[in-house]
Amino acid sequence: MRGRTLSAGIALAVFAGMTVTLAAQPVAASPTTTMTEARPIAATAAALAAPDISVSNVQAHLTQFNSIATSNGGNRRAGSAGYTASLSYVKTRLQSAGYTVSEQYCSSCTYPSNNLIAEWPGGPTDQVVMFGAHLDGVSAGPGINDNATGSSTLLENALVLAAQNPTMTKRVRFAWWTDEEQGLNGSRFYVNSLNSTQRGYIKGYYNFDMVGSINGGYFINRVTSTTAAPLKAYWDSLGLQPEENVEGQGRSDDYYFQQAGIPTSGYAAGASARKTSSQAAKWGGTANSAYDPCYHRSCDTTANVSATVLNRAADGVAYALWQLAVSGGAPTCVGGQVVGNGGFESGNTTWTASSGVITNASGQPARTGSYKAWLNGYGSTRTESLYQSVTLPAGCATYTLSFWLHIDTAETTGSTAYDRLAVQLGSTTLATYSNLHAATGYVQRSINVAGFAGQTVTLRFTGTEDSSLQTTFVIDDVALQAS
């Protein structure tokens, strides 16, 4: 990944027809564990339709790139012998697999050299889904996490696609970019070489830059966009609760595609920024340490890669590719929990709330755990809210929003609703509760929300009090289950 941040004037577009996402509860797994991860039970036959990408095969490509660097002055910088050998390694395997492969000379690059473009000969030529990664590294080291991981992930996915040779609904194009580290020059040259018609053919560009960071996180470019939906759906099915790739904005090869109005997304595992305590709690790894401690250094070797993070990225690429471009790949239902941090035990993670609403204060006990959402209870005019964006998968049989609600009130008139809690999904008010619903302890509330299938909407709780006599609304264990 490039080290200097570009200004972001990003034009987002909607990629019509893409699969939508669901969220799941977090799992804490060490990002450095070596493993081949089984498909989760929550991922239905739709996820199983995509192939399992062998992380061992991806690692074998990493070993080759590391050897290439060792044999060519210790790096794979654009324009160097190490870069040329890396390009040859990828090109030879793609040609043998049956791809239409071309090299594009980047004359305006800092180190003039070639992009590598490979297209699978199936699907309509005017409906292109593109997957890209930069092939070059910095001169300081072999550039294995940055970015042999992205390059190898795409190479193995391309080889598996060729081996399975499914019926295609869209054309799939892979790209390995040169001169990314000097300013995203290879991808910029490519985008600038396209005329408006050719740009319009590209329905989505997916970028993969540093997808195996040894202390890594799970980041997605424009995570809430429709374009990101299939990438997010797979990681959500693993319970990873991915976050926006804030560190990488404007710093990798998706940037000039965005500027050209092409919808973009992609995976990343983090560079020199430091993992937060909350991220370490849900993803494992070391808090307050860099995602990649060898970023742009000589120690960026094969030892600087998490097999677990790499495996999850490689399988997520396959899932997205199958959903977007393979006949029969669209899911019927990827069921599970859609709400993130429904028990509030991770504090404000995934929620936006009025100050002090998510709390472990002892005045009102949580139903389970220590934290809950406590709205109102002041006995004066006040409005407080709690909300998060959720995406309901298409094709499921049932969709149920449920939560546990405790209402405590000092209001004494038994027939007037003075203080209210509104529950909304998007612009629709699903239910309203008031001081009239006060009860001892928690009561579970369940609402059918099947009408929102396939939509990304905001789940919102809003509490309002009048000028006197308090009413407290305490919410815990929120769930939105699709099955």
From TrEMBL:
GO MF annotation list: aminopeptidase activity
UniProt signal peptide: 1-23
Annotated Peptidase M28 domain residues: 115-320
Organism in which the protein naturally occurs: Micromonospora ureilytica
Superkingdom field: Bacteria
Taxon lineage: Bacteria, Bacillati, Actinomycetota, Actinomycetes, Micromonosporales
CDD domains documented for this protein: M28_SGAP_like
Designated name of the protein: Aminopeptidase S
Family: Belongs to the peptidase M28 family. M28A subfamily.
Leading EC class: hydrolase
The EC number(s) this enzyme carries: 3.4.11.24
